[in-house]
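Holo prediction. Input below; ligand is NDP.
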Amino acid sequence: MTSQAAKFDYDLITIGAGSGGVRASRLAGKYGARVAVIEESRYGGTCVMRGCVPKKLLVMGSHFAQHFEDAIGYGWNVAGVSHDWGAMIAAKDKELNRLEGIYQRLLRDSGVTLIDGRGVLSDPHTVEVNGKRLTAEKILVAVGGWPVIPEFPGREHVISSNEALDLPKRPQRVVIVGGGYIAVEFAGIFNALGSEVTLIIRSGQILRGFDHDVSATVAEEIEKTGIKIRRDCRIRSVEKHSDGYSVMFDLGDECIADCVMYATGRAPNTAKLGLKEVGVKLNDKGAVAVDEWNRSSVESVFAVGDVTDRINLTPVAINEGRVFAETFFNKNKMTLDYANVASAVFSQPPVGVVGLSEEEARKKHKVRIFLARFKPMKHTLSGRDERTMMKLVVDKATDRVLGCHMVGEDAPEIIQGLAVALKAGATKAQFDATVGIHPTAAEEFVTMRDPVPEKEE
Ligand code: NDP
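Structure of the complex:
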């Protein structure tokens, strides 16, 4: 402990026990720092309690519907199977309780003090919680983000992903607004379980920002599964009726739904935390502005994870927490490399991507594009009309693979492996020299020989 730190109650106070805050606190505790974590809701944060984990459990739970249908082509008789939504939610809740206990235990085992309550900064070294003032040499803000729902008449009738994970009953007619990660993932869950799902998007495209072949393939595939996409459409109002909610569109028509869910993005949780008052600068999106060391404009205040709105993914927050703890509590200066962070959308079928989209790559490079579309082997017998898409974006000058994109079963699992290759700077020649595993879908990534013909070159 430094003499400076001895002046304070703690070496580190972390506000927020989500992925980033927990990792930073556990590591700092392990390295001998006196650490307290303040959490006003549940230990585990968005990912474990309201995001990735419960969402993926529901994705897996709902996906059995397809497995049962597909099994028929392989000789199975699946007559009589049915799904119990309440049982799935109860099983999910039990798992979340187990995980919360594990998070709390891991923190305690690292010597971290757990404080339940809302922490608010009152000066650059002081946090007020439950009427007490606690001081620390460093304060880490790791409070994450929260769903944003725009203002409109009837806003009080709609839900966000937070509530969608805990619905007591599966709604039969579901309207989901937005075309991003969350909208597409929840559309898949409800649709697979038998709900009628309509996605309302304000542009012509879902998953904007992804490679165009990814967003087009996902749109095509989810529409085949029965999800309706209303493009260039906005909601004017939502009214509650005895038989559901009446959703009025800007074109003047309407539809009736049992549930209207908004998945229109998330915003950093920086309000009423005392940040601005102690001089912490926020950016134009309300996120804590930090430097490469996760330090804010106030020397003793740091931030990691979604509250900084860099790449809003759990493993990024965890790694930000790790480099913060290594740098300041283990004399091991580290920064995070944000290049080639892989990500997935757990749509049905899912997406896995790493590196640049074709559009991003073309801004800086001349590229060769390799594209494969095929019917996965499983569906030769299942009869399902689902196609897999794989794409490589290659730098013409250096032969380096700049981006790998996949839509299809196991895409997130496959892309995780390829992310290592991209991090290592793999070339297309090295992909070609890699012998495939047969019969798999993944082998296609090492057997794509002919680039898509370039029109303009
Ligand atoms: P996204 O930013 O991914 O998508 C927001 C969607 O809402 C877009 O389709 C956007 O349309 C639309 N939208 C925004 N504002 C409005 C509005 N006022 N009216 C109508 N539509 C609107 O947000 P999500 O909420 O889906 O997810 C938040 C973040 O959470 C993601 O960015 C991601 O970082 C993270 N996440 C990651 C997951 C994963 O890794 N699998 C899963 C879930 C979340 P437009 O395209 O026109 O802008």
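The two ends are 63 Å apart (CA to CA). That is the main takeaway for now.
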